[in-house]
């Protein structure tokens, strides 16, 4: 059964996150302080920036020594060579390079701009890299919430990504735990009884995009949202099944 | 100011849509029958299938005479040559063809599978094409709602599209009226005061994806959703600004 009403609730009062902080506990406490309780089947969407911070994936740019290649790129594009160096370190393959923008494949098989290395919201003179294993990050937060609040939630780690074909970035799921990221509707019938043959929906990305409606991007003081009322399929499938294998990608 | 809580409400009781039906009136009446009232700044997301039906963009496959080219493609792929013929008629350019799947650029500059021609939910032996001008469709529904219910809403026409790079389709905005589809956050500052330089968010697509959480896809008896509580920027900018110009697409 599909749901009739879904709520997206911004979680207020998340403090500034530093390395080794317990995000599960922080989320449980913040929700309680709002006078709410987490419920079974809530979906907790967490912006990757606070996960990166909690996992120590922040570096001081002053500690980075750019390679010659990074300096060459930076010179062409008027960018900070130390930022470029970090982008290269986080990449396993460059997909495109133009006007100082680097599209690369990260060690996590995401194809995105700047390998997800972000200067925004990282702190002055610092850069944030993506979590090393965002599915694992999601699972840990989910388990910790279960431990502390005794509720079965699903967790999505989100990031804002540019896309081929369409202008404007959207939030996508780079990690998840507890819900099936891809909803396979093949075999269901339409309103006339015709069997669907090719409908697979990426609900994890749709949920991440929905959460962005309350998660501020500049003002990362709201890095967490609760989505309530969406009947997902419980599953241990990770978000790493979402990136297409290159040979299956008919668009490229 | 960003919102703290956003609701996505499925609109129940939309009847089977036929050509020339008044979607604005049908939506206003359906919402009233649910005991709700539309409010200023509600966003109404309408699945394109009912727009296609109301605008007569449905054909009987038995009326279609496939070209030789369509027959050749169909033979290779075990598809209905009349369906292929329609896909070709709706396309102005083939981007990729493999295993019976055609990625093409439609007359509306959307790059998508099968030029958006859908056999699902169109009726037995029928196919649905995309609305000819989805931005205009959205504007008409919006104006009609204003006329009948005296509320200023925004309207999005949505469709489910596959994507490059990522498995699983998501709902996107193929038409809109009344809201700025691309939210330009450049110039805003992050939590440390650093000015954002490259954040443009496609809120129209994020809203369409959010609506999909209540809009069933097989069961098109729920083809309309209300999104309430999201503070969009009012605008007359159409959704046709969303597709990237090919020369600007660094991903491809």
Strand-pairing-aware structural class of chain A: alpha+beta
Oligomeric state of this protein: homodimer
Radius of gyration of chain A equals 19 Å
Strand order of the largest sheet of chain A: 1-12-2-8-9-13
At CATH level 2, the architecture of the largest domain in chain A is 2-Layer Sandwich
Mean pLDDT level of chain A? 92
Uncertain residue segments of chain A: none
Q: What would your notes on this structure say?
A:
The structure is a homodimer. Chain A has about 250 residues and is α+β, with helices and mostly antiparallel strands. Helices cover about 25% and strands about 25% of the residues of chain A. Chain A has six helices and 13 strands. A six-stranded mixed β-sheet of chain A has the order 1-12-2-8-9-13. In chain A, strands 4-5-6 form a three-stranded antiparallel β-sheet. A two-stranded antiparallel sheet of chain A has the order 3-7. In chain A, a hairpin with an 8-residue loop joins strand 8 (about 155-160) and strand 9. In chain A, helix 3 crosses helix 4. Chain A is globular. The two termini of chain A are about 35 Å apart.
List keywords for this structure.
homodimer; 252 residues; alpha+beta; 60s Ribosomal Protein L30, Chain: A; CofE-like fold; 2 domains; six-stranded mixed sheet; three-stranded antiparallel sheet; 6 helices; globular
């Amino acid at each position: 059964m599909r749901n009739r009403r879904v709520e997206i609730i911004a979680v207020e009062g998340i403090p500034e996150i530093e390395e080794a902080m317990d995000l599960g506990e922080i989320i449980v406490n913040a929700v309680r302080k709002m006078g709410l309780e987490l419920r079974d089947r809530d979906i907790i969407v967490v912006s990757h920036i606070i996960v990166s911070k909690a996992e120590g994936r922040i570096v001081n740019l002053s500690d980075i020594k750019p390679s010659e290649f990074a300096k060459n790129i930076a010179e062409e594009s008027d960018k900070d060579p130390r930022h470029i160096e970090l982008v290269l370190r986080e990449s396993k393959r460059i997909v495109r390079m133009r006007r100082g923008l680097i599209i690369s494949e990260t060690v996590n098989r995401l194809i995105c701009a700047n390998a997800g290395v972000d200067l925004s919201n990282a702190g002055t003179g610092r850069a944030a890299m993506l979590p090393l294993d965002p599915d694992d990050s999601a699972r840990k937060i989910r388990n910790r919430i279960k431990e502390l609040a005794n509720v079965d939630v699903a967790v999505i780690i989100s990031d804002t990504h540019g896309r081929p074909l369409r202008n404007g970035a959207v939030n996508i799921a780079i990690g998840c735990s507890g819900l099936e990221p891809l909803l396979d509707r093949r075999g269901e019938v339409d309103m006339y009884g015709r069997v669907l043959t090719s409908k697979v929906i990426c609900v994890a990305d749709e949920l991440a995009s929905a959460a962005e409606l309350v998660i501020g991007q500049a003002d990362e003081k709201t890095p967490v949202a609760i989505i309530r009322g969406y009947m997902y399929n419980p599953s241990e499938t990770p978000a790493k099944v979402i990136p297409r294998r290159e040979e299956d990608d008919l668009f490229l």
